[in-house]
Amino acid sequence: MQPIIQLRNLSFQYKNAERVLNNLTTNLFEGQFITILGPNGSGKSTLAKCLNGILHPTDGVVIVDQIDTKNEDLIWHIRQHVGVVFQNPDNQIVASTVEEDVAFGLENQGIESSAMAKRVEDALQKVNLEEYKHTEPHHLSGGQKQKVAIAGIIAMKPKVIIFDEATSMLDPIGRAEVLKVAKQLNEEEGITILHITHFVQEALLADRILIMDRGYIIADGSPKEILSKKDLLEETGLDVPIAVDLAHRLKEKGYSFHTDLVREEEFIEALWTLR
């Protein structure tokens, strides 16, 4: 796999404030579904803004699709290929109908009208909103509004989509809708997904998890490797998956039980073999 995003000693500091990101070095690979977990104030959202050139590093570099984000001449190339779905769905709506909103970015690029119509139609189909294309966005649920934002990004044919706490203001149904779309885009379209959240259960969808705390990447691995580390999650202020918590409790009671069962279905299956 080729790295689609490279961080090299990335640090960031807001004016007259302490550093928010501290010497981050890692590669994010094409086609991965990556979750970045961390408590509030850990630097997750600042990192997201550095990845598509909204913010420039104080020190170090961010390379996106082989382009340095400090290269102002090519910044629009980066933003075309790295889309961001933000936390508040209402802040991302810019047009009076769903169809017009999805077309907004394409219009700014000067895409020919027939090609634009096809891309809008395809994007709405991928997020299952075709029947709402003439609907005014304020009539939609929070989850549907986020899917409109996702469709607008899909229409631009991105290589990476960043979900920056994009489920945090949604109810469980809306969260499930958005996460389902993210997973489908990754598996069916090969789009690299970077999902930033503090909801540990959502990280089970990922191929790879990074944990951030106080501006540092403190852990990097698969869901099984990361989410089974009960002490690490608790020290970072993150919830421990139910399966992991129960497995540890059984082991403390003297049962021979694996503590790296991070999914509830794995835990239930293991219970049947318990002696």
From TrEMBL:
MF terms in GO: ATP binding; ATP hydrolysis activity; ATPase-coupled transmembrane transporter activity; cobalt ion transmembrane transporter activity
Source organism superkingdom: Bacteria
Keywords, in A-Z order: ATP-binding, Cell membrane, Membrane, Nucleotide-binding, Translocase, Transport
Residue ranges constituting the ABC transporter domain according to the UniProt record: 5-239
GO cellular component, one term: ATP-binding cassette (ABC) transporter complex
Membrane topology of this protein: Peripheral membrane protein
Keyword Transferase: no
Main subcellular location: membrane
Record's keyword annotation contains ATP-binding: yes
Compartment annotation: Cell membrane
Family membership: Belongs to the ABC transporter superfamily.
Protein name, as recorded: Energy-coupling factor transporter ATPase
Organism: Tepidibacillus decaturensis
